[in-house]
Amino acid sequence: MLRTAVIAVGALLLLPLLLAGQGMADRAKAPDDARAYILWPSNGTVITGGKFWVRMGLQNMGIAPAGVSHADTGHHHLLIDTDLTNPDEPIPNDKQHLHFGAGQTEARLELPPGTHTLQMVLGDADHIPHNPPVMSEKVTITVR
Amino acid sequence: MTSSFPAPSAGRGRHATFDARSCALSCAALWGLLSALPVLCTGMPAAAAEAAAPDRKADQAGTGAAQRTPGRKDAWLYIGWPNNGQVVGTRFKVWFGLRNFGVAPAGVRKDGTGHHHLLIDTELKTFDEPIPSDRQHLHFGKGQTETILELPPGRHTLQLVLADADHVPHDPPIMSKKITITVRADRGQQLSAQ
Fold it and tell me: Is the pTM higher than 0.80?
């Protein structure tokens, strides 16, 4: 009986590990033809003054606010002068990783003079990139 | 199975009933349940929210015009492409521009959001009813921010209207200017908004 008890305890101890594994593999699926793109500015654009609207485009998917789980939707994130390091984790929230969890499709940016890169990534309800990630090309701009 | 904890009135002599085996099983069961709770709980709020939504919808239908979702004065809805007066082919992309407001799928209630509707060769007659859904009133209830239209040759008007979770325009209505375009059969496709 003690042996049965030990086996039962062992099985129950393993249960959370199995459930955690399920969560990790569960990134939201993106349609094959989904495409994110930065409508403006385009590669090589020179911006005078540093303030501009970034227009974000999304093809074959929809926008939903953060926290809303709806098939084939996500919300925009803008990577400024940085890359997406880990697609399995929520996108961090800081000056280089802007979140648009209210469902915005355009953003007013102010950047200092110099060369900058912009890239869009779509995140699901929990700010985690889809599987596969729906990302735009990286756009390089110059601010004067 | 006997109780795993000694009854309060058991007294010291009854420790023999404090059974290591059942105690271990109960503790393990409790631990397993506590670990599983976060996973189970993520399913529950969604179900609870969905249960609440139909009730609110029923309220909204009952009170009718009194309950329009507020818009925002600085929200700007515009047709990013095509431009007013543009000549296009029979198949072309329309890009929906929206500033200072967000997009959400139909049915999602969140302040400061709505989903797009495209009026083709028509105008909105009333603002306190759900926008009809037909060939002249296209709904983008999945939160889409662009579409590909196919129109017959000739002149057409296009206008965007944002609407709330129940397809009712906001108050004040968030609408784009109405633009006029010319569709020509000999122009090919314009599928890029750039």
Answer: no
Q: What is the pLDDT of residues B18-43, one digit of tens each?
A: 577 777 677 766 776 676 665 555 54
Annotated domain spans of chain A: 30-143
Asked whether A41 and A118 are in contact (CB, 8 A), the reply is yes
B194–A contact, CB cutoff 8 A: yes
CATH of domain B76-190: 2.60.40.10
List the structure tokens of B136.
């002249």
- B76 in contact with A, Cβ within 8 Å: no
Angle between helices B20-63 and A2-24 (to 10 degrees): 30
ipTM of the complex: 0.80
Model pLDDT for residues A100-119, shown as the tens digit of each residue = 999 999 999 999 999 999 99
Q: Domain A30-143 has what CATH class? A: mainly beta
Q: Give residue-wise pLDDT tens across range B65-86.
A: 457 899 898 999 999 999 999 9
Contact B31 A53 (CB under 8 A): no
- In chain A, residues with a C-beta closer than 8 Å to the C-beta of B108 are 64-65, 68, 70
Structural tokens at position B17: 């009933």
Alpha-carbon distance A14 to B98, whole Å?
49
Residue A53 at interface with chain B, using a CB cutoff of 8 Å: yes
Does residue A23 come out as left (phi exceeding 0), alpha (psi in the -120 to 50 range) or beta? alpha
Contact A63 B28 (CB under 8 A): no
Mutate to test the interface with B, among A37, A55, A60, A120 (most CBs of B within 10 A): A55
Taking the Cβ of residue B192 and every Cβ of chain A, the question of whether any pair is shorter than 8 Å is answered with: no
